[in-house]
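Lab meeting, action items carried over

1. Structure of the two-component assembly. Owner: GW. Status: complete.
Input record:
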Amino acid sequence: MAEGLRMIPFWEVNVMSEKKKYLYLFSEGNRDMKEILGGKGANLAEMTNIGMPVPQGFTISTEACTQYYHDGRKINDEILSDIYEYIEKMEQITGKQFGNVENPLLVSVRSGARASMPGMMDTILNLGLNDEVVVGLAKRTNNERFAYDSYRRFVQMFSDVVMELSKSDFEEIIDEMKAEKGVKLDTELSADDMKELVAKFKALYKEKMGKDFPSDPKEQLIEAVKAVFRSWDNPRADVYRRMHEIPYDWGTAVNVQAMVFGNGGDTSGTGVAFTRNPATGEKALFGEYLINAQGEDVVAGIRTPSPISHLEQQMPEVYHQFVDIANKLEQHYKDMQDMEFTIEDGKLYMLQTRNGKRTAEAALKIAVDLVDEGMIDRKEAVLRVDPKQLDSLLHPQFDPDALKAATPIGRGLAASPGAACGQVVFTAQDAQNAVQSGEMKKVILVRLETSPEDIEGMQVAQGILTVRGGMTSHAAVVARGMGTCCVSGCGEIVVDYPNRCFTLDGKCYKQGDWISIDGSTGKIYGEAIPTTKAGTSEHFQRFMRWADEAREMMVFANADNPTDAQQAVEFGAQGIGLCRTEHMFFEADRIRAVREMIVARDKEGREKALAKILPYQQGDFEAMYKVMGERPMTIRYLDPPLHEFLPTKDEEVADLAKELEVDAVQLKNVIRSLKEINPMMGHRGCRLAVSYPEIAEMQTKAVINAAINVTRETGMKIEPHIMIPLVGDVHELKFVKDIVVRTADKLLADAGMEMHYQVGTMIEIPRAALTADEIAPEADFFSFGTNDLTQLTFGFSRDDTGKFLSYYYKNKIYESDPFAHLDRNGVGKLVAMTARLGREAKPEIGLGVCGEHGGDPSSVEFFQKVGLDYVSCSPYRVPIARLAAAQAAIRFPRK
Amino acid sequence: MAEGLRMIPFWEVNVMSEKKKYLYLFSEGNRDMKEILGGKGANLAEMTNIGMPVPQGFTISTEACTQYYHDGRKINDEILSDIYEYIEKMEQITGKQFGNVENPLLVSVRSGARASMPGMMDTILNLGLNDEVVVGLAKRTNNERFAYDSYRRFVQMFSDVVMELSKSDFEEIIDEMKAEKGVKLDTELSADDMKELVAKFKALYKEKMGKDFPSDPKEQLIEAVKAVFRSWDNPRADVYRRMHEIPYDWGTAVNVQAMVFGNGGDTSGTGVAFTRNPATGEKALFGEYLINAQGEDVVAGIRTPSPISHLEQQMPEVYHQFVDIANKLEQHYKDMQDMEFTIEDGKLYMLQTRNGKRTAEAALKIAVDLVDEGMIDRKEAVLRVDPKQLDSLLHPQFDPDALKAATPIGRGLAASPGAACGQVVFTAQDAQNAVQSGEMKKVILVRLETSPEDIEGMQVAQGILTVRGGMTSHAAVVARGMGTCCVSGCGEIVVDYPNRCFTLDGKCYKQGDWISIDGSTGKIYGEAIPTTKAGTSEHFQRFMRWADEAREMMVFANADNPTDAQQAVEFGAQGIGLCRTEHMFFEADRIRAVREMIVARDKEGREKALAKILPYQQGDFEAMYKVMGERPMTIRYLDPPLHEFLPTKDEEVADLAKELEVDAVQLKNVIRSLKEINPMMGHRGCRLAVSYPEIAEMQTKAVINAAINVTRETGMKIEPHIMIPLVGDVHELKFVKDIVVRTADKLLADAGMEMHYQVGTMIEIPRAALTADEIAPEADFFSFGTNDLTQLTFGFSRDDTGKFLSYYYKNKIYESDPFAHLDRNGVGKLVAMTARLGREAKPEIGLGVCGEHGGDPSSVEFFQKVGLDYVSCSPYRVPIARLAAAQAAIRFPRK
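Predicted assembly:
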């Protein structure tokens, strides 16, 4: 044994290896421990630290959750004994005891992931109650009705959330009892009614589960913790995570907190509030509360709550204390806070605070206001708005004239802004089916209330209309997050699910009828009102200027016609990164010539047909140059396989044959000969120009002539950017480039004009990425076609993934759609390699992206990191890309 | 300016920069300068150095050729003046002068690339003749007929080769004259006839070219040099280069050599000879010559030459001198030499020597003999045989019994070994058309003689039969190179091209009739004789043992059934690298169950059908294990899209519906729903197992049960290798591997048996290569599926390249088919990256290749370089792969 090394006996090793800490009292954590404690847990700890009135408890860390999955969905003995230990600590702190009839500890159990996942995770309240404890609670509070109300709530919630029994079975029992007693509200039920409910619930539980409802509070707690862990993996959570790019391996924490009761009578209550208006951003306390209720009542939207301002009259002291706390929290977190509170017998408790979700409009106003108030600087402000949210600003509004002529049939809460118009459907499934089958193009989902199961249906809907629930109801929160228009809480609506219709303002609206809703005003219209494009506010302009100041990458748009180009410029595009010329080929006035070109038997025939297309194409480019001015415009040469331009049905072929004056049988043979087994990997892109150089020649004529004409007409300095698609080998690029240069130089010489032009290439074939060092010397720029690059790198065609991608999500093989968010490990490696090889071979080479990923914030961040010069995306995503690029530059500056 | 640095005035810079050397006298070069001088030039220089009788001259380097292309197909002034300078040097050396009537310098101009390209490049003889010089030559040689014969040859050759006039126009004139004079052979024409021919040829030239035949020898030379350069780029050269993987950018050298004349009378002649028999390898001078002829006459096969041994009687002194030289050359080069010589007026001149092309049989014998003779060592011997050549040994021979019953209808020269049987076609184009259209599966190409234009037709033919030409004729040389059976010089055949038939032995054979030829005996049969698989000689076994000693990679075979597995073992395969299970699915007795599985609506239905397939599949594996013994066998799980197993025609669908007792319309819908837009990138490979884990489960049962049964039965130690196809993400592999492990471990536990098994993955998706470090920890081995990897890396589907690949060759974008030879710059980069990342993550991981490239020598070399453990290829290519791997190991040893 080497000198100086001491052998460590195994028992010492055991002692020395530090035991992993899985549990934390609220007093042990702080706001920076979100990764371990989750958002809710970290903020409960922080509030505890700064002396807020927080019912105490502990947090079971996210690491315990991942360990649970690692152990095959089991809580291991170590963590189990830790939990028991922390229950004891909690009992000491609160002076109450689990199962103690005199002084029972009752707790809430809540999930809390790193990122807020509203409605996705499950909560259990009043845990610790059993037949003995409830008696003690009734005695201690001198409120039997409250005790049994709490108990029946607990039994119901535990059965539903923990044991996954059907919620509606329990609701049916309540409804039966209310009918029997002739009352309308839960609050009208008596203590004895509640007792009876508990008995009936427990009987139902036993019937369904085959065993008694668990009476041991510790057993209840462990089951509840497991249920929270389990819920991390439910399909709704999967959908939410995929939508919000939350990694599966993060896991969720569990917060166990001493219960305080808002349902103990008229000096108790519960509510939620925001320090600023989450819909408008207005600086004023905004929220709602219910007296004699538990938190779930507010969020679920079963009773319609009162605005927070009413609390000032009802409980002035509590109200002022709350306002004070709210201000302190906002100052502390330097952001708008979303808080939950409970008033127990006149005493205020804070149950949660977090940075509040908000509409895009509100996000902008709050960010700008916080700068003006001196709380944050501009860069911080830029980071405060989720780029994806801007979408909602850019969404349609009602056409003002059409709106004038329309009369509302009702009004609900303006829960999520924007206007929508669509056909009525009543279930999330119907919404999905109708849209996916193409039966309806736009739907409005009408529900009593929404629940997490409805997410996918909500995603496809233009708008959401609910009967119950306030601004913080599930429907409202989720719709704002999605940027989908929502009107909530329109209690006048009578929904008849079985007959698929609703009645409002005395009229019946059936499934398929058209209605319109305005999520900014809450108005509902019994007709289709055309919508117009979105407008943007003054805050928006100011905010986006800050973003542009911070940005390092340019943002271009993909646009194929002057209208789109104009829209792109209005949204702040600095150029066009992708103008697809084939879209121009499809237009009715030229498709004939295109088809003539395709079926031509020789070069001469093709050239004749191309000569007919030239003036159209040149005219298109001239119009676009006029819109774009001196901004760069990148024109991609013909890309799709030629058969896409030809008809396939026999009658159409016959018509075309007549039109082109060729034999129909012969034409059919031509069309058949163009058919490909894998057209995505077939005769397309630059392969067309290699086979038929005359196509590239014609397109060059159109580009250069258009530039010459517009230069002459306007005096602008135009530099055409010509982009060759589907290059996989430098010789392909060189071949097509030679045609371009030869043609362009001759035209310019003939015109006696000096004009710079660039010839670049798409990088969308893996081989192009791998040989970027060979290609770069021939290219003025590279533009990543990340759609095709993703297809080829993954080896699946976007058109065919439908058959198996759902299995991939189900089996956790993919967490997100690689066509939506750039796959960094695979495709991203190619992008980074290309950028490096390209720059090494030609330092001045331009690097950009023109695939769909150019408008996706997480992908944009990656492009910033690997040093691209620009991203290009559809015009409506330009503001999103601008903001995403700004945030990426702030987070990952190049200098 | 830094001290010690001296400013260099620009005129000095000019002087100091060394002028590039483009030309070399034969005395300036040597055998090691092939890159610059080409093979022919380097060997002419070497022979000059060692004192052989070589007519002197100079070589224009390959760099001059690439400069010519670089300058836009122009010889620049610098090179031009160099050529003039070297003409002067040559005039000094030879004491003759260009255009000097008294003592004219006449030269041959020959191409000479680095690698020999027989028949691909063009030669001009007798250059320097004009109307004046010819008179002087006649006077000087006192042989007017010879002078004008040389002149008419020159005019014809220059017109054809340099000016690209039609050769047949000139031949027509000769034929007319022969008919007119009533003679049969050129040699029977008189001096005046020759004069008349010259006049007629020059008139034809003027008519076609619109100007006089050039009389200035220097102008003739420059045009000839340009023609050689140009010929580097002709389509035949392209085809040859692609076939032999010769890079386009090598270029060709040009050799300008003083003429010696074999056509000056009966003491002159010309011939070609090999130091050993190029067909059998027998150690004996082998060759042929023609008296009173120029080299082209021998090679073109227009007159049938005499065997070299006859020269001993005819010119004993010359013969012995030649034998002496031949021996010296073989000793010098330590290899069998292929020599060209000319006898001018009784004096021997060597015009060329090179390592002779030979049949595979001869190559093996020569290599083995040279070792036995102590001339080379075993490793050198292993390097001496082109692996691709082994193909010919492995080609079919006639079935001996069938052959006994057959009577030959004629006999030609045994020009290239092997037996062939096919339908008669008369043009290369017909051969291509018939085979490509599927009209005929096997064709025998019957020609008067072949020419370089015929190469593509020769490639598709089973065998080649020619009327004219010897063992060194174009047909013979090319066929040997291709390993295609060839019988040449069967003069009894009368071909009637216009009527597409030939007469032999009094019988007429029409296009489409079946004949058989034996390239090892020269026999021709007027019927189809079945062929059997090839046998291998004793040399082969000995030689292959040496190869195996040198080899570092293992060689496996791709085999899907016991017969192929048996063949693979006989050819020396050390295991099976790819057993495709889907081929087993297609067999008639199980396809019904496969289809039942596919159309099943749920897991239960699928499992029921899979249970029916299981015994078949298990039986297949048992049979294969028995053949393979303890050699590794890698079984790939189901790979193709399911629709490949279903019928498409309406009647077939109806039949299937009846068979499966399902509704035909419903079945049609199922089939339609399985249709994919890009099936190559669709629902296949491991995506099937992810969607339907029960398939992987059934296959695992089949593999493991088979291994258990065979182990029990035979006591062999079997280690199944299970391979998951089309993996692109580690989670895919993990998911399927989990199924395999779970299923296998249970079976083994139930059987109470210990058995190691491996689970590995194909690397055929670019993303798998890019993330090999993530995948490696889950994989026991990686096997590169280079076919799919090539498709996806290039972004084109093998099935659809037909439409554009010809344009790619024409435009020099691709020099070879990436499906035949691994693309090192692109696909190879991914392979190397995978090997590196995989080994870094898991040093013990197995690395192999099972795509078609596994049997391609140039690809095998690459796999040796990047450190793979094995290659796997079709059984018939196993010996080729063994030899290629041995050569690669000798050239690029790992230790």
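2. GW to write a short summary for the group page. Key points so far: Chain B touches chain A through 48 residues (CB under 8 Å). Residues 603-628 of chain B form the longest helix (26 residues).
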